[in-house]
Structures are given as C-alpha cells and as structure tokens.
Specification:
alpha+beta, Ribosomal Protein S8, Chain: A, domain 1, Dna Ligase, domain 1, 2 domains, 5-stranded antiparallel beta sheet, 4 helices, 8 strands, 32% helix, globular
C-alpha cells in the first residue's frame, strides 16, 4: 500500500476514531510534521498525549483521544498565505470566528495561524482543526 500523504492519513484516522468515540488510535507511519501537528493539537486540547512506539516495521504513534475534536483535516493544496491574508482562509476552513485553528508551516517553524498573525509572518497552510 502506497501512502501519498502521511499527514492526511493521520488526521483522517484521528477524525474517524473520534467520531466513533474511541479513546485510542494508532498512526503509522510517522514523521516530524505529524508529531508537531499533534503537539499543537494537544496544547489546544483537541487530542491527548501521544507515545512513540518503535518496532522493526517502522515507528508508529499511539494517540490518546479526549473527545475535544469536532473535525480536523489537511488543506490541499498547501496554499501560500501572506501575513495579512489569513482571514480569507479562516472563513473558508473554520466554522465561526474565534473557533478552531489553522496549522501553518512558516519560516520560523510549524505554528497556528494565530501565532503567525501575532508574529506577522506568512507561510503555507497545512491543516485545520476545530
């Protein structure tokens, strides 16, 4: 099986398990971007903590779900956004003002759109979560 977008597969698996009220899910394969996105989702109380499982077939992440997630997904294509252009994408991907986050890859690392607005930097859109 060929996985074209590991981040999309991870967020889809989390979304599916959250909708059937599971408390634990396993994401495989894993990379630094997925871990950073999960760290951001954890700090905003959308998912719980995760533990990394190393085995001979590749690493996987065991994620604790806390029931705080309504929907998450990847933004395809990864639109470029300037420092003053976040509002257009907030209207497109988030259900209401001040509800949810958009995760952005910037020159200063992966962060939420709120942090990027505060630091006055642009970037590429990765995912949304509410």
């Amino acid at each position: 099986m060929v996985l074209n977008d590991p981040l999309a597969n991870a967020l889809s698996g989390i979304n599916n398990c959250e909708h059937v009220s599971k408390t634990l899910t396993v994401v495989k394969p894993t990379n630094k971007v997925i871990k950073r996105v999960l760290d951001i989702m954890n700090t905003h109380n959308y998912v719980g903590t995760y533990t990394e499982i190393k085995d001979s077939k590749g690493d996987s992440l065991e994620i604790n779900l806390i029931g705080g997630l309504n929907k998450c997904g990847v933004i395809k294509p990864h639109f470029s956004v300037k420092k003053d252009g976040y509002e257009k994408f907030e209207k497109r991907y988030l259900p209401a003002k001040n509800m949810g986050i958009i995760i952005v890859s910037t020159s200063q690392g992966i962060m939420t759109h709120l942090e990027a607005k505060q630091k006055n930097i642009g970037g590429k859109l990765l995912a949304y979560c509410y």
